[in-house]
Write a structure and sequence with these properties.
- The chain has 344 residues and is an alpha/beta fold.
- The chain folds into two domains: 20-256, Aspartate Aminotransferase, domain 2; 258-342, Aspartate Aminotransferase, domain 1, CATH 3.90.1150.
- It is 40% helix and 16% strand.
- The chain has helices spanning 20-29, 41-54, 66-77, 91-94, 99-104, 121-129, 156-167, 180-187, 229-235, 244-254, 258-280, 300-308, 332-342; strands at 59-63, 82-87, 108-112, 138-145, 172-177, 202-206, 216-220, 284-285, 293-297, 314-317, 321-325.
- It is globular.
- The model has no long low-confidence stretch (mean pLDDT 95).
Amino acid sequence: MQSGVRHHHFESDNTAGICPEVSAAIEEVNHGASESYGADEFTGRVRELVCDLFETDCDVYLVSNGTAANALALAQLCQPFYGVVCHRNAHIQTDECGAPEFFTRGSKLLLVGGDNGKVDISQMEATIAGQPDLHAHKPRVISITQATEFGTVYTRDEICAITDFARKRNLFVHMDGARFANAIATLACSPKEITWKSGVDVLCFGGTKNGAAAAELVVFFKKELSCEFEYRVKQGGQLISKARFLAAQWIALLTNDIWLKNARHANAMARKLIERIGRELHIDVVLPVEANALFLRLPQRRVRELSALGWHFYKFIEPDIYRLMCSWATTDSQIDEFIDDLSR
């Protein structure tokens, strides 16, 4: 490998290009004219495909990125004096620049801990008990991330335990599914089993990390919760005039289960990478590999050497834990190159 060449293969699943099926779908709708602002036939087709996928009648909205999906969905569920309970390492807390609080115009994220990126119910209980009266934000939503920021996956039983806890306290459940496809690939279950059948009210379904260019869905399983959400989408700058180009990406992903194929590949590459590391190198793997992410303990010297060889990836947990992320586009040769350099 030539020194100085930048390698972003394992930096994030955002660094991969768009998959061939999505590319072809965008090209296909790029002929002639079509109605704008979501009134086109392609957007309508996405709604049909999503309802078929989840085997229920749900309301479906297209937005361009995950931060908008999460922030607008939470704003739909929250008055300004409400609170959102989430893991302290959740994406809505660590990586969205206060967008949930901004779009809710005053709501607060109520942070809890929990092993491996999953919310701990006993800690949620304590946090909610600590918001006893009108002098504090009123808990209204529990937000969980599937797969989590630590690459772990909530099982159906874990989700049901959280939604049961929520129902007893009149709380909604929001799922940040930026990597929902990877979770489904791991659990080998139908999408309905870990969403509406388990009590989830709203899902932000990610496509961008799974082969799309920029395409996310906000799915309301309780249609009464989505009343006038289209106005919130417009006000949030997410009513895309040429919506057919977002819709085309989802049509491609949802046709012939490309979304699931891409996720299975990413997960399989992560397993292959961790198996190679475990078999050939003496490196501490600090979290379970359940989706398409793995977390390694690496000394600074080794990180500097890899950086000098062009490898780029993120420090995720201080002081020395780094995340590697596989994608739909990860190849065996990329794994070979990285293992070769890591073993030097």
